[in-house]
Structures are given as structure tokens and as C-alpha cells.
Amino acid sequence: MKGEMETMEDVVIVGAGIAGLATAVALKRVGVRALVLERSQRIRATGAALTLFPNAWLALDALGVSHKLTRSYDPLLKGSVTNINTGDVQQVLFPEQGTRTVHRKALLEALAEELPSDSIRFSSKLAAIESQEQGGGASIAVVHLEDGTTIKSKVLIGCDGVHSVVARWLGLAKPIHSGRSAVRSLAFFPQGHRFKQEVQQFVDQDKRAAFVPLNDREFFWFLACKGENMTGEPEQIQREVLEKYADNFPSIYLDVVRHTDLSTITWAPLMFRHPWRIIFGNLNKGNITVAGDAMHPMTPDLGQGGGSSLEDAVVLGRHIGNSVIKNGGLFVQGDMAKAIDDYVKERRWRGASLVTGSYLSGWIQQGGAKWWVRFLRDRLFYKYIFGFLAGLSQYNCGNLPAVSSGKED
Questions:
Q1: Tens of pLDDT along 358-407?
Q2: Which one, of 352, 368, 361, 350, lies nearest residue 390 by Cα?
Q3: How confident is the model over 41-75, as pLDDT tens digits?
Q4: Among 135, 146, 238, 241, which lies 20 to 30 A Cα-Cα from 266?
Q5: For residue 235, is it within any domain?
Q6: b vs e for 127-153, b when ≥16 Cβ sit within 10 Å of the residue's Cβ?
Q7: What does pTM read for this prediction?
Q8: pLDDT band at 137 (very low <50, low <70, confident <90, very high)
């Protein structure tokens, strides 16, 4: 019956994206059940694919799911950057520990498979949130869904993306538009292709594009450019890329775009939250916090959106898990605010540094026509600055605590 259902949970996670599913897996590993609320009718895989750097693989190791993906995707060891205007080609080396580009859907499914089937509730759209004081410093988060359902929770984690309802409730400033947008898609070659396992990137004034093989038949490709409007149906977006945005790009890039799987093509403005809003903003209140894009939305220029979400999940799981262990295997509500506070302290500066590094990387590579910007990009960035920024991916977020008997596997 509509509006009459009320349940109580230990942890409610809003959003079944990378951050939400990974956090649920991390909590399961430390013996805590979480209910994941997802507004869509099924797992969404918008974005087609993503590149995971060493920090992401260390987080996936901690979650116990990395082996499911590493056997399907080969590591990328190098790439090239072609300057469209001059024809200059520069080589870029990736970390030896392995950088892999994976299907977003494969990552989401690898995480979802680890969870009990009843732990993700689809078609669950958030209407409102409130916090009820319980005395003794403890509080309960109350989630109201649009279908009239009310769910009470000892901990609420917003993993609901760039336009997070939970972040808004916490009072975090809205993400802003970077002035750039990106098309992302998969391309399919039914007869196979002969490209090496390398990233091929192309830079032009105000534009940046790349493609990377996922396997012997599929590519992930993207194009980022200034502005925010590319309208219409998938075929129209593909045509605009070919005829307007990348018309002067090499034929190998255009050939990949021509082989686009139109069901995977998306066009979106690139949003980010100012780093000082992350450093000084309210990332938690009592037993309510945010993770992933809800906490630190960033442009994709360092490929750290997915990796940082996986890091958040492990760190959250570690602090909540340590609280459970300290309390003899019990989920003690009064201790959760401190566990969440410790998580936020650990993630605040890391998130801000990744947002800053990503923005700088994008700004330099698509900085425009000024001579000094071109000099910065063509002479300094790929040789010196990129290596420094890529060093942000050489990060280990740590492991999950081992819970004694009763540990869920």
C-alpha cells in the first residue's frame, strides 16, 4: 500500500553506480549489510568505458573483485599524442603496475555480483531526507521515496552522482560547468582490428580526442571540446563529431568513430566541484555522508572519477569495519558518526587534489590558441607535468579489516 511502508536498515546507500556498489561490497566484506537504492530500473552503464589506473586496481584488490576484470582486459603500457596542427607525435608511458580500460558495465556487474540479490532496490527515487536525533549524540537518517516509502537508517551514504540529493541536503555547493563537454562511445569492428594495445590521443585548439582498444573487436573513444551543446539523436551526435568537431582529425580516428555502436554514445557537459568547496564544505553531518561524484565530481582528464570512487568505498568500509570490530562485531550507532568523520578527514584533501589535477590537465591540453598555452602543452606538459599529475594514481587507499568468525565472503 502506497505511503505506509517503513523499514529500518543499518546502512542505506543512495545510487547503484561505481561508488554505491563498491561501498556496499566493502561493507559486506566487513560483515555489514547495506541497502542500495537506485532510481533507475536496472544497473546503468552510461559512459561506455573507463580507464582504471594502479590506485583503482589496488582498491579493487581490497574489495576482492579485481581478478574478475584483469583476466578480460590487457594492460596499457604506452600511448601517443598527435598534435593535429603540427603533426608532432609524443609518446606517453603508463605506470608499469598496469592501467586498463574496461567496460563500465563489466565493472558494475563485477561489483553487483558480489551482493545479495535483495540488496539493490531499483526504481527507488529519493524525495526527501531528514535527520532525527536519538539522544546521546546518535541520530537516525530518514529517507522518503517518491512512492511514499519511508526508510530509517543508522548510516546514510549518498553515492548519487554529480547532482546528488544527499550532497544538496548537506549544503555542499553545486558542481559547476568546466566550459567543456565530451562525447563518449564504444566502437565495434565485427571482423576485428589490427591496432596495438595503446592509447592514441589527438589534440587540437580547444579539442582533445582519443581511442583505446578494449579487446580485439571493440574500442572506447571520446572527444572533449569547448562549449556544452551537441544536440539530437545518437546518429546526429556521431555525424557532428565526424563533420564538425573532428573533421580535420586523422582518418584512423574518424574510422573508429564511423564504427560507433550508437546505443552507447553519450554527450555530457564536464562538471566539477571547486576544490576549496571540498576542503571547507560539509561532507558529512552526523551519520550522513557522500562518496564518489557526490563528494568530489571532477573532469575526466586524469581518468580518476572511477578510481577515486573505489578508493572512497574501501576507506568507508575500513572505518565502519573498524568500528564494528572494536564493538565486538556489533553495529553501534553512536560510534558511526566518528567512523564517518574519520573517513571524511582521510578523503577530503585527496578528493580536492584529484579535482585540481584533473582540471589543470584538461585546461592545459585544451587551453586554446594563445602561444604560451600551446608552448605549455606541446613542450612541457607531456614531458614533465603529465608525469607529475599521473603520480596521483600511485596511491594505495589501504585494505579492509578482517572480521573474525561470521565474516561474509
A1: 998 887 766 655 666 666 666 666 666 666 777 788 899 999 998 764 43
A2: 361
A3: 998 867 699 999 999 999 999 999 999 999 999 99
A4: 146
A5: yes
A6: eebeeeeeeeebbbbbbebeeebbbeb
A7: 0.93
A8: low
Q: Percentage of the chain with pLDDT > 90? A: 72
pLDDT of residue 98: 76
Are the CB atoms for 98 and 350 separated by under 8 Å? no
Q: Are residues 194 and 224 in the same domain?
A: yes
Q: Look at the chain and count its residues.
A: 409
Residue 399 falls inside a structural domain: no
Number of structural domains (the chain) is 2
Same domain assignment for residues 265 and 276: no
What lies within 8 Å, CB to CB, of 184 at 6+ separation is: 47, 48, 49, 220, 221, 222, 264, 265, 266, 268
The three cell numbers of residue 266 are 553519450
- Residues forming a β-bridge with 152: 8, 142
Classify residue 243 by its DSSP letter.
I
Same domain, 205 and 309: no
263 dihedral zone (left: phi>0; alpha: psi -120 to 50; beta): alpha
Q: What is the pLDDT of residue 195?
A: 86
The residue among 235, 270, 305 that closes a domain is 270
Residues 6 or more apart whose CB falls under 8 angstroms from that of 339 comprise 319, 320, 322, 323
Could you tell me if residue 80 is inside a domain? Answer: no
φ, ψ of residue 367 in degrees (nearest 5): -70, -15
> Can you read off the three cell numbers belonging to residue 88?
608532432
The residue range of the domain holding 217 is 178-270
Q: Is the separation of the CB atoms in 25 and 115 below 8 Å?
A: yes
Claim to verify: residue 324 and residue 381 sit in the same structural domain? yes
Same domain as 124, residue 68: yes
Same domain as 190, residue 152:
no
Phi and psi dihedrals of 34, rounded to 5? -125, 145
- Is 81 inside a domain boundary? no
Residues 305 and 164 placed together within one structural domain of the fold? yes
